[in-house]
Design goal:
- The chain is an all-alpha fold.
- The protein is about 70% helix and about 0% strand.
- The chain folds into two domains: about 55 residues, Homeodomain-like (Arc Repressor Mutant, subunit A), CATH 1.10.10; about 200 residues, Tetracycline Repressor, domain 2 (Orthogonal Bundle).
- It comes from Streptomyces antioxidans.
């Protein structure tokens, strides 16, 4: 009983510390995160809080992994909610069966892309924590890169048939890497994801599909990052229009 109480208190203390750290992040960025300041806000001493987090880096790692998990769950939920049946129901009554089927991958991709932007706009500080300027002196442990690789798996799945009307990409993906000549970009991405242990053996998509996913991820993040950091302010247009245009281009394979 006493052990269970201590564990509950430990968990509550760690969660409270992370909540205060997120408030510091919103106010001053990663440079403003201070274990001693967090402890003071919680009515504790710095050394006391170090019993719950061995270092500032450990606290940052918790914030980063929590953020990656939250984003991964958000994107997975958005893709799952964009059920194929929805696309079929929305298709014109006289549409050929293939037309309704082709709409489903695009709907899933659009849902994922919009969920990514919505998530970033709701919590820009957490978005910039994982996709902004790296924290000076901080070295991410393996568990953070593994979670980040999980996000890439989500986008690879979403990209698997989008912009590929004849299904050729899906066929090439199924053949696995090495069956088609890879560009330098694709080969580099294959090496990166293999080193990170991102794929279940036997289920790894082809290098071409990975390369396409990386380019897609880069284009989506390009618009989102500029938007989140206020770079479109004063330009006189709605950034969401640009983002939707980018989604349309990616769906078409452009």
């Amino acid at each position: 009983m006493a052990t269970a109480r201590r564990e509950r208190y430990r968990k509550q203390t760690r969660e409270e510390a992370k909540a205060v750290a997120l408030a510091q992040l919103a106010e001053s960025g990663t440079a403003g995160i201070s274990v001693n300041a967090i402890a003071k806000a919680m009515g504790m001493t710095g050394p006391a809080l170090y019993r719950y987090f061995a270092s500032r880096d450990e606290l940052l790692t918790e914030l980063i992994t929590d953020t990656y998990r939250d984003l991964a769950e958000t994107l997975a939920r958005a893709v799952a909610d964009a059920a194929p049946a929805d696309a079929a129901d929305a298709a014109p009554a006289d549409a050929a069966p293939a037309d309704a089927a082709d709409a489903a991958p695009a709907d899933r991709f659009r849902a994922m892309a919009r969920a990514l932007r919505d998530w970033a706009k709701r919590q820009p500080d957490r978005y910039l924590l994982i996709y902004g300027t790296p924290v000076p002196g901080y070295h991410a442990p393996p568990e953070t890169t593994e979670i980040a690789a999980g996000l890439m798996r989500t986008i690879v799945d979403a990209c698997s048939t989008v912009g590929d009307a004849d299904g050729a990409t899906a066929h090439r993906a199924a053949t696995g890497p090495g069956q088609q000549p890879l560009t330098d970009l694709e080969a580099e991405l294959v090496r990166h994801l293999e080193d990170a242990g991102s794929w279940v053996p036997g289920e790894e998509p082809g290098g071409e599909l990975k390369g396409r996913a990386l380019r897609t991820w880069t284009r989506l993040h390009g618009v989102i990052s500029l938007d989140v950091q206020g770079q479109f302010t004063g330009m006189g247009f709605d950034p969401s229009v640009l983002f939707e245009a980018e989604i349309d281009a990616l769906v078409r394979g452009g």
